[in-house]
Design a protein that fits this description.
single chain, D-Amino Acid Oxidase, Chain A, domain 2, 21% strand, binds flavin-adenine dinucleotide
Length: 474
């Protein structure tokens, strides 16, 4: 949350990022860190974003497993995602325990000059004025209220603005999934997995993840539709028993875990995919899970959270310094984040739709990444799949040439309209059918330029912000 007045400024000399775009920021967090969180497998886009935020060195030196890619064993066929081979040494990510990772990020925020208030639960927001009001209670239960220049809703799936204020969050029946997972003390990856890589293994009804964390621990989880899950759960006395049964039924996963034992309790969480109706409005932006959540198949959650945080920050600082108008910044954000989400969603939906046919999603990847005219023309492309699933296409398209995004988003919006008319989803049918959000309601018109006919672009050098692209096409 950003405030113009407010306390919390620190006495020591400001670090680089603070000097660059000094804004007073107050962060209200209802819990105390560290705290448990799921979401352990990261994508390479987090590296430059963490560098920009000042947190990269601390994350790098913590000792998390370095991740160089993945294997998707889909329909029994392996797609190897090897970032080092494809992009070079500097393209890696980490497998993290989120309690440590999130605590590093929170500490970093404080070091950068943010006024961090833990145990501060936001109770109410009021967006009726140009600048939002926020009411929160501190750990003693004392109520506080303040007005801010901008409110950034980073409240995760609680979704203060969309789920609780606008009530405009839309989910999708085909993606009402449930995840069940725990931790193993020993396991091994599929042969050929790039160092530190995740394995995602499809089954008839869902898929497994197997993630090597630090200190020899492995995170192992299963995702399936809630109806299938309910049925499976009824047949088992405990969640531990259910997870072990699910693993036993899939030889590939069973073999990876042979010789290891479960070393933590089994957890269960809903992982319904959804998208807010509005990602921003006058005086506010939604980021991360507060804006949209995508099934974890491609490990996109933290990527989307950090990516949207970076976009929203760029929009706010460039509005405050007068580079863009408030309206221009908001259009840029709506287009950029929604296009990013819809594209990733489409890829994941295709993977679910035809679990037995890996060529299908590799063909879709090519269309999504290059905007080619129709699936009939497309060759399956691992390269395009890796570009998209690593999040790198998202960075490319908002910082540079976004022609592909525009072409793809427009085409898929049209296709989705058609598919919705021709084959509306029948609740209760086999989960996994491709069923888009009503993307025809998505404001893709940001492809239209600013009022002055230029195109906006995200820049990080010499400082984070938006730039009017001089070579605008319109
Ligand atoms: C089963 C499963 C597996 C996943 N696996 C992966 C993965 O491998 N890789 C990946 O990248 N992502 C994964 N994700 C997604 C990932 O967990 C999220 O996308 C990511 O944590 C979103 O970050 P966020 O900052 O938006 O929200 P969060 O990390 O949830 O942070 C929200 C914060 O807001 C605080 N808050 C909420 N309400 C209030 C309030 N009223 N007042 C003050 N503070 C409040 C919360 O305490 C919390 O700290 C997975 C998700 C699921 C469900």
């Amino acid at each position: 949350m950003c405030s113009s007045p407010g306390a919390g400024r620190r006495a020591q000399p400001p670090p680089r990022f603070w000097r660059k775009r000094a804004k007073k920021v107050t962060l209200l967090e209802r819990t105390g860190f560290p705290r448990y969180h799921i979401g352990e497998s990261l994508l390479p886009t987090v590296v430059p974003i963490l560098e920009l935020s000042g947190a990269k060195r601390a994350v790098d030196s913590h000792g998390f497993t370095k991740k160089w890619g993945a294997i998707f064993r889909w329909g029994g066929v392996d797609t190897v995602v090897d970032w080092k081979e494809m992009y070079g040494e500097d393209h890696h990510a980490w497998q993290v325990d989120r309690s440590s990772f999130d605590a590093i990020l929170l500490n970093n925020a404080e070091e950068q000059g943010v006024n961090v208030l833990e145990g501060a639960r936001v109770e109410r927001i009021d967006l009726s004025e140009a600048h939002p009001w926020v009411r929160w209670t501190d750990p003693e239960g004392v109520a506080n209220e303040a007005q801010y220049s901008y409110l950034v809703d980073a409240s995760g799936r609680a979704g203060l603005i969309s789920a609780q204020y606008h009530h405009d969050r839309k989910s999708n029946e085909a993606f009402e999934n449930v995840a069940i997972w725990s931790y193993w003390d020993r396991a091994r990856p599929l042969p050929g997995t790039p160092a530190g890589g995740i394995n995602s293994i499809s089954t008839e009804d869902g898929w497994f993840w197997v993630i090597p964390l630090a200190n020899g621990q492995w995170s192992v989880g299963y995702v399936t539709h809630r109806d299938v899950f309910r049925e499976q759960r009824r047949r088992h006395a405990t969640d531990d028993e259910l997870l072990e049964h699910l693993i036993d039924a899939v030889p590939a996963v069973r073999e990876l875990l042979a010789g290891g034992s479960r070393c933590a309790r089994t957890r269960i969480e809903q992982d319904y995919s959804y998208m807010a109706g509005r990602f921003c409005g006058p005086g506010y932006y939604l980021i991360g899970d507060a804006a949209c959540f995508l099934d974890p198949l491609l490990s996109t959650g933290v990527h989307l959270a950090l990516f949207s945080a970076m976009l929203a920050s760029a929009c706010i600082v460039s509005t405050l310094d007068g580079t863009v108008t408030d309206e221009e910044a908001r259009k840029f954000y709506e287009y950029g984040l929604r296009g990013t989400y819809v594209r990733l969603f489409t890829l994941v939906a295709n993977m679910y739709e035809r679990r037995a046919d890996p060529q299908y999603y590799l063909r879709t990847a090519r269309r999504l990444n290059r905007g080619s005219a129709s699936s009939a023309e497309d060759e399956p492309s691992v390269r395009d799949f890796v570009d998209l699933s690593a999040g790198l296409a998202d960075l490319r398209d908002l910082t540079g040439d976004d022609r592909w995004t525009r072409a793809v988003v427009d085409r898929f919006a049209a296709q989705a309209r058609e598919e919705q008319v021709n084959s509306p989803h029948q609740p209760g049918t086999t989960p996994g059918g491709l069923n888009f959000y009503p993307v025809h309601s998505v404001p893709f018109d940001l492809a239209a330029p600013t009022d002055t006919g230029e195109v906006l672009q995200l820049v990080v050098d010499p400082a984070l912000g938006l730039r009017r692209r001089p070579d605008g096409r319109h």
